[in-house]
């Protein structure tokens, strides 16, 4: 099944990936607007690309919004934006809405992120958590009220939970890993689409715990402390190496941009995406994320060159599937 999904549009060779990219001289005279919205997690990468693109294509105006992955997809299927930033693959419901609206799209993974669970630096007792303990803290069923509820040897300090907004791809991914598609997350959390708000919340309460993308953790190591995650093979800390090699499981994930096929035919959008793919490995690392393997970038570039429509993360029966990028991009 995965081979069927991943075979379409992967015949282009790596040497063709950017052969059609406009020359810099042409970029300087290019005009137009590129509209982007979506994930706050992907925002720093896209914004970094937009800033560098502006230096070579100063007459093209690139706008990058932050309405969350779900919010971005809503605007995307409404035809309001050219590109949707997403911190998870498109959902079946969003896929269906796009089909109903006759919005064809090209799905492009662009980097890795790791969902980092953080606590207050004064929390000296919790250095790692099993997935079951994470569920006990964040799940709606049997939610732990104090740290002692999680581990009898820990203090009875009240737990205060901080979470990204429920419209964010970060929340969706975390929820699916911790409680499953049909499970529920506790309702007494403090939520925000702004990860900086979450950092401030955790730093202000000794009993606090929260989660967000690894880039925000790497930027705020002096304010919060990461907790190792034991996915069944021992506790692993979120690092660039553990995220890229897949050992930081199950909380590492790919990040995406989705490009409207209609918009992809516009010279300014085409030039922006080709610039994006050519520079994203370097820029993703510069802003704290983890680049994809070169082989995956080659396949992603081939999909773009071939205008491969649709998602490789929804199987022929319409179910949303999960797995490593290597599985989908063989």
Structural key phrases:
D-Maltodextrin-Binding Protein, domain 2; 3-stranded mixed sheet; 330 residues; alpha/beta; 14 helices; 2 domains; 9-stranded mixed sheet; disordered N terminus
Question: Layout of helices and strands, plus pairs?
Answer:
Layout: H1 2-7, H2 24-29, E1 32-38, H3 43-56, E2 60-64, H4 68-77, E3 83-86, H5 92-100, E4 105-119, E5 128-130, H6 131-138, E6 160-164, H7 169-179, E7 190-192, H8 195-203, E8 208-213, H9 214-219, E9 225-226, E10 228-230, E11 235-236, H10 240-244, E12 252-260, H11 261-264, H12 267-286, H13 294-305, H14 325-328
Parallel strand pairs: 1-2, 1-3, 5-10, 6-7, 6-8
Antiparallel strand pairs: 3-12, 4-8, 4-9, 4-12, 10-11
Helix pairs in contact: 3-12
Description:
The strands form 2 sheets. Strands 1, 2, 3, 4, 6, 7, 8, 9 and 12 form a 9-stranded mixed beta sheet that branches. Strands 5-10-11 form a 3-stranded mixed beta sheet. β10 (228-230) and β11 (235-236) form a beta hairpin. α3 packs across α12 (267-286). The protein starts with a helix and ends with a helix. With 330 residues, it is α/β, with parallel strands linked by helices. The chain folds into 2 domains: 2-113 and 254-328, 3-Layer(aba) Sandwich (D-Maltodextrin-Binding Protein, domain 2); 114-244, 3-Layer(aba) Sandwich (D-Maltodextrin-Binding Protein, domain 2). The protein is built from 14 helices and 12 strands. The radius of gyration is 20 Å and the shape is elongated. 38% of the residues lie in helices and 19% in strands.
């Amino acid at each position: 099944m995965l081979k069927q999904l991943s075979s379409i549009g992967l015949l282009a060779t790596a040497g063709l990936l950017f052969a059609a990219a406009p020359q810099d001289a042409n970029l300087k005279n290019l005009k137009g607007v590129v509209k982007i919205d979506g994930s706050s997690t992907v925002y720093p990468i896209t914004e970094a690309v937009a800033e560098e693109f502006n230096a070579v294509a100063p007459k093209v105006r690139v706008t990058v919004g932050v309405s969350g992955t779900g919010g971005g997809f809503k605007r995307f299927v409404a035809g309001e934006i050219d590109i949707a930033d997403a911190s998870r693959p498109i959902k079946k419901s969003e896929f269906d809405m796009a089909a109903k609206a006759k919005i064809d799209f090209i799905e492009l993974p662009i980097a890795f992120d790791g969902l980092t669970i953080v606590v207050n630096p004064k929390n000296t007792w919790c250095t790692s958590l099993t997935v079951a303990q994470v569920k006990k803290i964040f799940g709606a069923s049997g939610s732990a009220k104090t740290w002692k509820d999680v581990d009898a040897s820990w203090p009875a300090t009240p737990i205060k939970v901080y979470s990204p907004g429920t419209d964010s791809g970060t929340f969706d991914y975390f929820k699916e890993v911790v409680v499953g598609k049909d499970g529920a997350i506790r309702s007494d959390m403090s939520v925000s689409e702004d990860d900086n708000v979450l950092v401030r919340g955790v730093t202000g309460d000794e009993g606090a715990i929260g989660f967000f993308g690894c880039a925000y953790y790497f930027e705020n190591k002096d304010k919060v402390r990461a907790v190792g995650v034991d996915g069944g093979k021992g506790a692993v800390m979120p690092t660039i190496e553990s995220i890229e090699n897949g050992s930081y499981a199950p909380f590492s994930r790919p990040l995406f941009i989705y490009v409207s096929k209609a918009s992809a035919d516009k010279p300014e959008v085409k030039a922006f995406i080709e610039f994006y793919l050519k520079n994203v490995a370097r820029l993703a690392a510069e802003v704290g994320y983890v680049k994809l393997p070169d082989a995956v970038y080659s396949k992603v570039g081939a999909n773009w060159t071939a205008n491969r429509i649709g998602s490789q993360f929804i199987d022929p029966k319409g179910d949303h599937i999960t797995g490593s990028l290597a599985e989908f991009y063989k």
